[in-house]
Each structure stands twice: as C-alpha cells, then as structure tokens.
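debug: dumping io for the single-chain case to check the tokenizer round-trip. Nothing else runs in this session.
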Amino acid sequence: MENEKRKAIDIPSSIRRNYHSLSEVQRKIADYVLKNSDRAMYLSITDLATTCGTSETTIMRFLRKIGFASYQVFRVQLAQGLQEETPKYAWSDIESDDSVGSIKEKVVSSTVAAVEDIRSLISDRDLESFAGKVLNASRLFIFGVGSSAYIAGDLFHKLIRLGLSAAVCHDPHIMAIHSAQAKRGDLFIFVSHSGESEVLLDCCRMVLEQGGESLAITSYPHSTLSELTSIQLLSSTNEMNYRPDAMTSRILQLVIIDLLTIVLTFKLGNRGIEAIAGSQIAVARQKR
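debug: decoded output
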C-alpha cells in the first residue's frame, strides 16, 4: 500500500483505530497480535493463521484493514515497534478478580497509551485544516447527544472563551431545525464516539443537502459519520471490560479539543489572547 511505503505504521494504534470495522474473526487476530506481539513477530503467516484458528486469506484481509499489503513488512514493523517498550498492562483487560492495584495500573496504562496514540492518529494537516475551517465559518454549530453532549459543551466553552461565535445543541429537534436551515459557509461539528448515532447522521445528511460543511470528532475512521464528514479528528480507543460508556474515548476527545484550542489561539494571535483574558476577568467578577 502507498501508506505502507511512505512511513512505518504504528501497529497497535492502527489496530485499535480500525477495530470497530473488523469482523469477529479479524478481531480475534487483532486481540492475539496486541497481547502477544513478542510471539507474533516470529510466526509465519501459516502459523499465525493456525494459532488464531483462521486462514491465510483472512490474515491478509486483516492486514489490509490495518494498512499492510505484505505480511513480511508487517512482521518487520511489529518487531521494530517492540523496541519501544510497552507498559505491562497497556492493552490488558480488567478481570473480575483483579486487585485494586492491578485495576489502577491497567486503567492508567491503557489511558496513557491511548493519549500517546493521538500523535499518529491526527495529522498536522488535518488539525490545521480543522482549525482553519472553524475560523472561516460564517456560522458554527456543535452537535452531540448522550455523553457526547458534554464533550460538545466543552468545545463550545473553549471557543467562546476565544471570542468565537458558536452554538451548541443537544436537543434532537433543535439540531434538526438548524440542519434544515444550513447554508453555504455554515460549519457543523459533530461529536460522536461511535459515529453511528442516527440523530447525528440524519442531521449531517441534511447539512450536506443544504450546502453546509460537516466535520467530526469521533473514534472510528470507517464509521458512517466519518464517511459523511470532510475532516475527522480521531480518538483511538482500547476500551476495557468493566469500563463502561467509552470512557477512554471521552478523555481523548477532551485532549483533542485542548489541542484544537491551542492551535486556534495561536492562529488568532493577540485577538485570541485578549479574548481569553477578558473571559477570565468576566468569570472572576462572579466569584468572591
């Protein structure tokens, strides 16, 4: 693949980023590679297929999903990746009989590793383009439902502190009205972990029909929302058993919003700095 020739692929990050779109059998391969990288790099394609109870053809389909056209290149890059030591619990699920100390280690290691993934998940070009579209929008709307509503609210809060005009919507009816009235120059940012919320997808389609533009903060590059939007800021996740409601992805999305805010601040220059200072004074006046 072109991407494979251009630069090394962060295999754990690529697996987690595409995990949502893998078949059940491919997920079994992914789980084995993540938990047994030190063994998998020595296996032939036949041995890996036997170990995972599948076929060589399925192994190759899995590799193509994560960005590889060659099994040998995959093995080499897997070995190279192991030179950077992975935390002991980075990709381990929490078990029902784990001690409190083990749970703490696993949750912290998993979260830190996922935050590190952001470096490779989000390209500088996408981050800069996303920020540029925010600054150039005639009107800006931020949509999120359920637990994503809180993430949308955080983005809204940071944008208005910078002096940017924006509206945040959590109510499906209000979102539908704004989407139906979208016009060229309007920008809609959709926040969704799964990228499969029917409410958001319906709104996104309406926005596109009306000539508006849609961006996404989401976890999965092959979700329907990712396919509909022009730029996606992706949060890779390795959600663990016993860790409900995509908790890691919410943390990552808050980190992504911080990144976006800092880029916007530098693009705005003195205007952004003065707006933040004015916002801080306005809030301080309401405190004793």
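debug: round-trip ok. The chain has a mean pLDDT of 87.
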